[in-house]
Structures are given as C-alpha cells and as structure tokens.
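[step 3/7] fold_predict: job queued, chain A
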Amino acid sequence: MRGVPVEAERVLEVDAASAGQRLDQFLAAPLGSRSQAARLIELGLVTIGGQRVQKRYTVLEGERITVLAETRQSGSRASKPAPATFDVAYEDEFLLVVDKPVGVVVHPARGHQEGTLAQALEDRAAGGDDPYRAGIVHRLDRDTSGLLVVAKSDEVHRKLKALLQERELRREYLALVEGVPPARTGTIDAPIGRDRKERVVMSLNTDVARDARTHFELVEALAETSLLRVTLETGRTHQIRTHMLAIGHPVVGDPTYGASAGRYGLERQFLHAARLAFPHPMGGETVDVSSPLPADLAAALELARRG
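[step 4/7] structure written:
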C-alpha cells in the first residue's frame, strides 16, 4: 500500500514486538515506506493522544497512533506535483549516478515538500539515517544541474560518505564567471557560513564559519567572462557561488551572489556538475561519469564567446 487513502483516518496500535521502534520506522510498513511516513509526520498528520509527535519518537506498547489523509489537512492539496524527472548516467546493483535537470529539488524541505528527486528515487535508493534523503550522498542546488551519486543500501551509503569525507570522490563543475581570474589555477581557502545579516545566503561574513576549499582552473578566457573547471574539496552549501563572489568573479546569472540576472538569456546560475569520479565502494574499480552542458548553458556559452 502506498500512502493513506483519500479522506481516510487510520488508527494503529503498537504491539509488544514493535515497542521501542522509532515512529517513522513503525509506520513504514502500513504506510508503504519510511519516507512516506516521515512526510506525513512532518505535515502534522500523525498524532498520539491528539498530540503531534516527531519522527524520532519511540513508540510504546499499547499506544494508539492516528494517521489522517493529506486532504484532511487542507482542501488546497487536491493534487500533487508531477514526480521529478532525471536521467541515469550510470547504474549497477549497488548505486546509481543521477544527471539532475535544472529546477529539480534534491530532497524535501520547507516550501518543497513534493516533487523532489529523493521521492522520485524512493523505490531505487536506500541508505542513511534520514528517510527524507534515502540514498542521497551529496546534493545540488535546485538551479544547479548535473551529476550526483545515490546509494542503494546502508552499506554503500556509508562507504560513499567515507569516500566523500576522505576526498576520494572527485566532483568537477563547469562555471561561467564574471571577468577573468588573475591566474589560470587557484585555490580559495575561506571558511563560510550563514551571513550575519542575510540569513538565507552563505558568506565569509558569518558567526559560524566552517572550513571550505574550492579549486579552480581556467578552461577558456572570453571577452567579459571565463569558463572555469571547479573542483570541491569540501561541500558546503552554496560553496562555489560564495567563493566565486569572494574573489570578485561571481557566477554568471546568479543575482543572489553578486551577478546580474538574465545575462546571455540565462534564467539561473551558470553552474553544472559535469563530472564525478570515485573508486567503486564495493569493487574498487574507478567509476568516472561525465555530463555535457545542458542546452540553456551551452547556448549561453556561445553568446558569451561572441562577446
């Protein structure tokens, strides 16, 4: 069974064998999946004794858990967004490398509860402590396209996370930036965190700074912009966009981080996760996957070359 039937109210009683489980774990089977259970809990549709509870709540024998249908919460939820679309660049029995289009949100968050990549991968991905992000090892911003690796089991997820922490998972991006850097290669080693004044953006001007290192290499110098190959050593939120702004070369099409909107016809930042390379977590052989520039970025690059 997938989810709660429309206009249904279900009451589930915790038996002795299930006592001590997390709430989302207990609800996984009757609701179809752990991520579905976690989503309904987040929406406030799961209660015990009339009170909302957290997904990490430990259930007790004899407790009666009430689950309401989503349509009982709001009449505006008559339909759901279409499932996220994506391409698979590589897949085997242990993992897959997804080529994410622009506009797709990786996992549910405030304002994006439906239509995420994590939900679209629900039947193919697994691993990790958070059912909202089952199998997801690293993420991309909604308006950044390209490659990310996804695990199919807890064991593979742990090993991919270890590769990421040990910097054995190489993540290369192509970025078109304003101006031309003074050197063909460089490293930006500058801790970043939430900006002190604008909490929705990341910045060097922060109270809680975390180490962040970005390497770049000039691929092509143009009249007013430069195409860079950017490699992440760490993976902080908005790291490339923040670091490029910090050195005076913001990513083209990114008004949030210092560039003009709409340049070269772009409706988003020129940032694409173009390559992933890593030793396979189970066999050790090298997995090396590339993704070409999507049509909007390729067209913008041609306009930039014309000056």
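[step 5/7] annotate
Confidence is low (pLDDT under 50) at residues 1-7, 72-78.
DSSP finds six helices and 15 strands in the chain.
exit 0
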